[in-house]
Structures are given as C-alpha cells and as structure tokens.
Amino acid sequence: MTTEAKTYRHWIDGSWRRPENGHYEVINPATEEPVGRAPEGGSLDVDAAVRAARTAQEEWSRTDPQERSRVLDRIAELLTERGPELVPLLQAETGATLKVARGMQMPTAADRFRRYARGALEPDTVPLAPQPVRASALAPGGLIGAAAVRRPMGVVGCITSYNFPVVNLAGKIAPALAMGNAVVCKPAPQDPLACLELGPILQEAGLPDGLYNVVTGSGAATGEALVAHPDIDMISFTGSTSVGKKIAETAGRTMKRTLMELGGKGAALVLDDAGDSIRKAALGSVASTWAFHSGQICTAPTRVLVHRSHYDEFVTALSQYASALTLGDPTKERTVVGPVISAAQRDRVEAYVEGAREQGAKIVVGGERPDEPRGFYVAPTLITDVTPDMTVAREELFGPVVVALPFEDEDEAVRIANSTPYGLYDYVFSGDAGRAWRLASRLRSGNVGINTVQRHPETPFGGFKESGVGRDGGSFGLHAYSELQSVVWPS
C-alpha cells in the first residue's frame, strides 16, 4: 500500500458511502503533508450506519458462537498477512516510529482478534444452585432454579484515540463482535484512514455486512451524533477525561451503558530499598515516556517519585538518557522520538512546559522546540524542582515530558501519587516484592506494575477516579460488552 493522498468514503453496511459534508485533510505529523482526505460525517451518515448495525446485529446475535469465532480468527489471519501493507499508512497518519508502527500496531490488533476468537467460545452462562422458596402472595412455593446469562448489548458506538488507532479499535470491536454485538466506529479525527481500510478486510474475512461501520469527522459533531443516537445501546470511549465527561452526560440521558478509558498521570515510585538492578529497570521504564510514541500513551509513568537517597543519582541518569535520544524522521531506523500528533498538541505541551518554568520548576533537559524544518516535534523534557500542586505535576500532557519529585518516606510517596484527579496506572520499584504489593493497595489506581511497565493481556484494564469507568481486557472485555440477564424457573 502506498501513502499517497487518497480520498476516502465512510464504510457503512459493507460498502463505501459518499459523506454528507465533503472531506477534510489528514496531515502527516512528521512532514506536515497531506496523507489522505477523510470523509466529513454528519447526522445522516451516523443514522445510516446505526440502522445498518441494528439490522445486522439481530441475526449476528443468534449466530452460533463457533461461527463468530471462525470469522474473528480469519480477521486475525488477514491482519497478519496485510499488516505490513498498512504500516506505511499508519506511520504516515500517526507519526509513529518504525519500531512502534511495525511492532505495536497491526501485530497487536491481530492478537486481539485472535484472543476474542477464543472468547466467543467462553461460557456465557453461570448456573446458580436451586433454592427452596416459600409460598407467597406472588407465587406458590417450591424449589427454584436460575442462571445468570451474558447477553449482547446490541449496537455499540466505539470512539477511539489517536495514539494507537487500529490497536485501540481492535480492543473494542473484537470483544464486542465476539459477544454478538454490532459496532459503529468513530475514529479520532487525526488518523482515521487505517480504520477505514479495515472495512474490506473484515468483509473478506466473512464478517456480515453492517456489523462493522466507520464514520469519521474532523470535529466533535460526528461523535456527538453517535452518542446521542437513540438506537445506540452502549458507548465505548478512549480519550481525554474532559471529552469523556461530556459523553457520559449525553449518554446518561438515555441510560446508555458506557465504557470509559480516560486520562492518566502515572506515578513511578522508586523506593529506598531499590538496588542497582531495580533502579536500572525503573530508569528504563520512566524513559519509555520519551521513547515510546513520544509520550502519547495514557499509561506512561510521567511522574517519577524517587526516595531522596536516590534522587540526585536518578535525575542525573534520566537527564543523560534523555539527552542521548535520537529525535527526528520516524521513517528512519535509528529514530527513537518522533513527532506528536499535531501542531495543536505540540503547542499544548510546550505551554505546559513554559508554565512549569514560570511556576519555578527547573527544565533540566529539553524545553525548547527542536530544530527540525518540518513536523510537530517536542524534545524529550525532564523537569525538576516540581511541587505536587504544580499544573505540570497534576495534569496529563500527552507528550515526552517527565517530572521528578523526591520523597522522604512511603506515606509522602503515596500522598503525592494519589494527589492528582487521575488513577489509571502507577508503578512501584522496590527490592522487596511483598513491600511493593502492600504499597500497591494504598495507590488509588486501576493498575499497578511492580518493577515493570509491562502489561498482562488478561488483566482487567481501566481506571479509578477520573481515569474512567468500567474494565476491559481478557475475559473482562466480554463482560464489558454484555449485560447480565437472570433466568428463573421452577425445578
């Protein structure tokens, strides 16, 4: 597949549909050149997609789970075969480095479809032991049997983030389809093209028309129409907390179910008993904020809290690491740090850094716009002399910026870690795993890594506080895209 500019249409009911409101340009964040022209959706486009999904879902929900599993497995096979063809497009619209684009986009998306091909075959019924029930004015007494059964939600609106467009979408549509739902997807406006390209691939895999629909738009109107549509049963959203709150407010008017993966301000706690090998692991983990997709990941440990006995040494090591990173053209093998997604996001991150400087923080590394002729680049930045109440220590920047704060004891570390509105992913680095386990219980975070930033694919993923509502991942993803129905009968 080439990355030359191409004009797309919406993918609705198994075919390309001319958009209601024309097109808008998708821009390569590394070159500032057009990648393609995406359809500008309106309420009529959304309505057509939802109607198609509703019609298709009724039959799909009655399809044998073995057939649903077969289709999802075939999707995984085709994504593995076609993935290399899609990588140039993904890289052009996201600005991801080669390492991220090749290793963390299509292969992970294929893995998710493969996982939920198995998930389609997981038991959906929990039998409950019969219970003797006394007679009442309601009904005669007797031995009453029952079961709890997971049923499909119906039509799910999937609104995805720009950092990993295909991977994030796969994490929603694979469990949704496995449970017998249909989906209408609204990708992030910055990079929707690969999500549109999935339409014919899923169709070729045997997915019935109408089960996967994609409508796109440059602003909020398309997503707002999707959330407000009366025939959408559930909204699955990944993105900022501010947008998530607006979605929740609209969805609540019709009691739509919601799954929200929102912002994060991850803290990495490096304890006093962290030996050389543990501190080295912590260093690499925190540095991933710079090296992994330019910090555009909600789980990144953007705050490093270091026991004062290790603080100076750790800050020195971090500054040396950041200074050595290669920033530039993401299509080059040696590049580690590529651009952020847009000029608006670059300006936003720069404003946060400048605000930290004005509040008295010290910019140890970075803080100045890189000398690149084109592209939306932010230099890897390390900030010290930060207090927990500073904006840069409390809000999600979504860029290659790390703040370092010292602490004296565990109580202070926990207070700092829990002091933001977020609670998505925190990390504890300690030479005593039992101590780290106990400390994890004090962190108001949906996920805690001990001596690693690696994820486990079967864990429930989601956040505390303003980092979201609900959980997906593994079998929990099947729970997220289904509702429990109790069925009762006389034994």
From TrEMBL:
InterPro entries: Ald_DH/histidinol_DH, Ald_DH_C, Ald_DH_CS_CYS, Ald_DH_N, Aldehyde_DH_dom. It comes from the Bacteria. Keywords: Oxidoreductase. It is an enzyme of class 1 (oxidoreductase). Its EC number is 1.2.1.3. Residues 16-487 form the Aldehyde dehydrogenase domain. The keyword Oxidoreductase applies. The keyword Oxidoreductase applies. It catalyses: an aldehyde + NAD(+) + H2O = a carboxylate + NADH + 2 H(+). Signal peptide: none annotated. Belongs to the aldehyde dehydrogenase family. This is aldehyde dehydrogenase (NAD(+)). The lineage of its organism: Bacteria, Bacillati, Actinomycetota, Actinomycetes, Kitasatosporales.
